[in-house]
């Protein structure tokens, strides 16, 4: 790419000397002998840098003409790099202009090498800044287009990686194909599944979720495919499976890597034909279900060791969406913090900075629990680091004097629907420690 420089100086010899210098170095130049013609040339466009004199009349040495020219250029071309070239008598004025936005000043006579270095640096810097501005503008435009054209289910993000992922998720949502969402525990795979469902052709149908990893082999098949009364011990009436419940909608299978060998065979059949039988029945049921599955495990490694079927993998993985961990998209931390804080609480800058230093092994779920715990324990509406329990580079950031009291436990129980596991995580306690405090404070659960 060839860069173009405008020289504005009332001395034709100076214009010629500068033009020869820059042309020898591969630059294009144009010259103007007075401010008005220089501004006219600028309006024609295409210039990357301006070199301007300070005085344009024989009896003028104050630099007032150069100041006016500088301001006129700045008024229209706010980002144009401008180098002031001046006699030593105008040096003080040139320095003042640098303070007010001129890129550099050069005394007459100038040093060719220093001037060339300055010109190259300024053009490269300006080009870099323009690229950054364009990149940020494109990011904002893409985010705005996503939010205007799709239902993003109130997801909060700022990172480029999440923007790319959401672009792809919304793009494939309308296609009636299985989607596999991969990523570490707590990173938000279920939220991505919700976004796919919300923008799919079956968005008005049921959206059924099942955590494959939380069910035993015996319960799993009944959960997915249903069971007739008396088909196994303890079932006294017909049970409708998740596939049947999700007919004409979407079924989200979380932790798909934990599906049993028998369950994999049945799932493969459903994906191929849309047909299955309830446990204890020979009647074939046919459904139309969009499958979204998720896993934090390496399914390719599971195929190699024989614990996951290769044909099922390729049925599930028509489209794969890889969700990065939170420590690889730390730009998302601030918007997520604002999402998890209630209307009464805020967080100070020092604590937010600590969040950006932490590696977040538990990902978004851990961030949410840390915020919940801080809101419960903080004695102020402005949360500070003394109520945050994190280990950053071997340094434990916490206040050992902070004690989980009865009120905070009762509040956490309500907010987590009396789920002991989630309540313990929220309070930063083990389950046994939570039960001890329930007994200590005589709290019913």
Q: Give the number of DSSP strands.
A: 16
Residue share in helix: 40-55%
Strand content: 5-15%
Judged by helices, strands and strand pairing, the structural class is alpha/beta
**Shape, please?**
elongated
**Count the helices. How many?**
18
CATH topology of the largest domain: Rossmann fold
Q: Indicate the CATH class of the largest domain.
A: Alpha Beta
* Rounded radius of gyration (Å): 33 Å
Kindly state the mean pLDDT as a whole number? Answer: 85
Low-confidence stretches: none
CATH homologous superfamily of the largest domain, by name?
Answer: P-loop containing nucleotide triphosphate hydrolases
Biggest sheet strand order reads 2-1-3-4-5
Largest sheet: 5 strands, parallel
